[in-house]
């Protein structure tokens, strides 16, 4: 069999774009995602460090993101941070659809100066987070570093992915977190790519995810 024998997938006919608007008594979050973008990002969550990390997801994942959020910042950033993760996860889940033809698995090892982070993920339909970061400070700027885990918990649960995050090295909190988001973005980019050899089939021996 030659490469030319595999059926072609017409990516131009497949729209992997989704928009989700989530409103609660605490937050108002709007997310639009294009999985086949070029890394364009507009992020206005009211949490500057989170915006910076969302730009990393977009840039290194080569997905287009438009995220706007209003929240009860007068209390703290927790609700907004979590609800951005929830809404982004829902949009990612919708954009992937039935997940036919995707690679499904992704793995990346990202260095950032002294920090070294490994991320492995699987769009399995089974939410699970294994979180191995040891962030040495309580805050980066005004951002509570405990919120990193909360963001990924929300994202994992609502995108229905399995996600493992491992810290192999690192002493600077900013470097550790940013390397995590970059590794996540690269692993996700690998997993959501369309595999032409799958010819639009479900990437599972069970035939369903």
Q: What features would you highlight for this structure?
A:
single chain; 209 residues; alpha+beta; 4-stranded mixed beta sheet; globular; disordered N terminus
Structure description:
This protein has 209 residues and is an alpha+beta fold. It is built from four helices and ten strands. The strands form three sheets. The protein has a four-stranded mixed β-sheet, with helices on one face. Helix 1 (48-61) packs parallel to helix 4 and helix 2 (78-96) runs parallel beside helix 3. The protein starts with 16 loop residues before the first strand and ends in a 17-residue tail after the last helix.
Structure in a nutshell:
The chain is an alpha+beta fold. 32% of the residues lie in helices and 29% in strands.
Strand percentage? 25-35%
Overall pLDDT, averaged? 93
**Mass-distribution shape:** globular
Helix content: 25-40%
Question: What layout of secondary structure does this protein have?
Answer:
Blueprint: E1 17-23, E2 27-34, E3 41-44, H1 48-61, E4 64-71, H2 78-96, E5 105-112, E6 115-122, E7 128-132, E8 139-140, E9 143-144, H3 147-159, E10 162-169, H4 173-192
Parallel strand pairs: 3-4, 7-10
Antiparallel strand pairs: 1-2, 2-4, 5-6, 6-10, 8-9
Helix pairs in contact: 1-4, 2-3
């Amino acid at each position: 069999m030659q490469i030319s024998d595999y059926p072609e997938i017409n990516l131009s006919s497949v729209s992997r774009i989704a928009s989700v608007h989530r409103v609660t008594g605490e937050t108002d979050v709007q997310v639009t995602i294009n999985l086949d973008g070029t890394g364009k990002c507009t992020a206005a969550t009211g949490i500057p460090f989170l915006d910076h990390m969302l730009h990393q997801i977009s840039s290194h994942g080569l997905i287009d993101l438009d995220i706007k959020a209003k929240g009860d910042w007068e209390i703290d950033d927790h609700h907004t941070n979590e609800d951005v993760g929830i809404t982004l996860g829902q949009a990612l889940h919708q954009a992937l659809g039935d997940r036919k033809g995707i690679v499904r698995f992704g793995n990346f090892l990202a260095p950032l100066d002294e920090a070294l982070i490994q991320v492995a993920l699987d769009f399995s339909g089974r939410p699970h987070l294994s979180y191995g970061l040891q962030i040495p400070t309580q805050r980066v700027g005004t951002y509570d570093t405990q919120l990193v885990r909360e963001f990924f918990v929300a994202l994992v649960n609502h995108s229905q992915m399995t996600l493992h995050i491992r810290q192999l090295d690192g002493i600077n909190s900013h470097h550790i977190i940013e390397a995590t988001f970059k590794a996540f973005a690269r692993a996700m980019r690998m997993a959501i790519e369309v595999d032409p050899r799958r010819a639009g089939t479900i990437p599972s021996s069970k035939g369903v995810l």
